[in-house]
């Protein structure tokens, strides 16, 4: 317990929280980029023409792209001094991880966006609004997935945990450290999912009230 | 006039005698000089001949003269040196400092010509020689058999370095067993990368060695490997030296000055001889001391070149006796039988499409073996992860839906824990647990990764089965069902949750490359190792991306078939 009270909580925990903030930052960037790519893909997909078929194929490819491989591809292939039309296009570590998560985010947005648009066309705007909690769920999945950044040296939460683990000689101390890490990520995730469920329940209640009102009228 | 005419024959005879005497003396002296086999005499002869040739009218205008002659024609030698390698070649304002630059100055002084420096990098130093933009490269260049085919290396070698593993003092590394599973930052193309990869360490690649000390300071890298000559400067920084130390040293490499393979025979000979003399007379040693670099190798070499059997020349070259000169590092990789066809294909692609394709994984046996093993291990990983996911899903689905509270609570606790743990951390914990019971091996890492991926995805799929069971119980009022009823309900629940099970199976297949994080020898790991000692990163990682997308697409197709099967079973009576 000495390790926990004298080092892990007062010294390590602030470092871990700072690292987790990087995970949240990566997830936010990835989600924004995913929305920017996913929404047009949704619209294209629902257009039903050749564009729709092309969009569906692209969404399928995005869905199949493994995040970790995409991250290594970006990390190793884009030169650090690469420029396009004079503009530097080299990605920082954080942006490399964020961009590698975009295929997942865009495919997710496209899938759920299509569902929401169909609900909207059916005249069920509240059902369409369920898109929001789904996006929130994707955000927390992205937070957890951003831990892959540890493999390319991004100083996020898992990298902080692993760096600390390397300094601890005893296996039991390492497992205690891992437990603290799981607890921190777990609390963030469960709080996030609880908020999403609250939002979902609230929307569900609104939906039920509207159905009741429409059936009475 | 008559007297003079009478004395002419005797005068002529006297002159002839004098001429014969002079000729005899000259022949004797020349013979003595020719027989002098010291490197000093051989170098003097070589330089005199080259200077005389350069002074001959019209010679300097010829295009194919030896570079030594041209150096005398231009009264200048062009030395390629590095500018970002502290203690060896570093720019300080308008001047270049370091051991390599001082060696270049010593050579120019011996030749009595001006010195012009050119900045070179590890990537272009040999190309600049071939393009005749520099006369000699003195640029921290390790001499190995592979490079022998690209440039003419000067021997004896002017320095020797070794690779060292540097890390924080807080981390205990006693031998190679302690680096297993750790991430080590290296520079692409470093000759020791293959050796590091074979020890079970993960490689994080950097293009420039200059990034390594900074990444050690900001703790992005906990360990880094580079030449001791490179870290020598950083260890002169008290702040760096207070926190870091050299953990292991390995892979000694002799450094060679190099000249172009063609048109530089006499220049190479002169530099060989100079190098012998510089070792024997402590010129190299004094320059090393002045630049505060390690000089153990140079002290040993001085003793070697002082020995009578070594302090000799052969023809117009230095001593090539293997008892005196060191061999190049034998790092040449065995080529595959189809390497020429691959090279021809690369050339064809470039000529016909303009696409620069580099396929190092097909050209050398070590790379080819790594590539084959990577593919087969990746397929094993994917099949294993799918089986483990399905197994854990059924197991946890049954446990979560069990009537036994302790079993249900245990399964719920495990599910929540797994859902709250980033998969990278799950993998690390699985690998740490495995190492408690078994000594590390790539296969153990592979099994740990399959277990971790299966458990992570299986928990989520198991929860979907449990939720399906709950809804079925609500719908069918099965609360008091018997054993056969529970089993039947479970089968229907599996069918009802088929979509979620399939999505987590696909997720497991997509997640397999992350196993490289704990050293599992799958394709990503193999290709990272291959690109660490060869070129062609763009092609390699593009191929990797295509491989995984195709494999995941196949998994998606097969999982679609499985979903159809499960959903059809759902409709059958329990």
User: What is the CATH level 1 assignment of chain A?
Assistant: Mainly Alpha
Order of H and E elements of chain A:
HHHEEHHHHH
Largest interface (CB within 8 Å) is between: A-B, 47 and 51 residues
- DSSP strand tally of chain B: 13
Low-confidence stretches of chain B: 478-483
* Estimated share of beta-strand residues of chain A: under 5%
Give the CA-CA distance, first to last residue of chain B: 147 Å
Write structural notes for this entry.
The complex is a heterodimer of chains A (217) and B (574). In chain A, a hairpin with a 2-residue loop joins β1 (83-84) and β2 (87-88). With 217 residues, chain A is mostly helical. Chain A has a two-stranded antiparallel ribbon. Chain A has one domain: MetI-like (MetI-like fold, Orthogonal Bundle). The mean pLDDT of chain A is 84. Chain A is built from eight helices and two strands. Chain A is flat. Chain B is of the alpha/beta class and 574 residues long. Chain B folds into three domains: 49-158 and 256-306, 3-Layer(aba) Sandwich (D-Maltodextrin-Binding Protein, domain 2), CATH 3.40.190.10; 162-252, D-Maltodextrin-Binding Protein, domain 2; 362-571, Orthogonal Bundle (MetI-like fold), CATH 1.10.3720. Helices cover 58% and strands 11% of the residues of chain B. Chain B contains 22 helices and 13 strands. Chain B has helices spanning 2-35, 39-55, 67-74, 99-111, 125-130, 145-148, 193-197, 211-217, 228-234, 238-243, 265-280, 283-290, 296-306, 339-353, 365-400, 405-419, 423-437, 442-476, 483-496, 498-511, 523-532, 537-571; strands at residues 76-81, 84-85, 89-92, 95-97, 114-119, 136-137, 152-153, 159-168, 183-187, 202-206, 223-227, 244-255, 258-259. Mean pLDDT of chain B is 85; it is low at 478-483. At the A-B interface, α2, α3, α7 and α8 of A face β10, α16, α17, α21 and α22 of B.
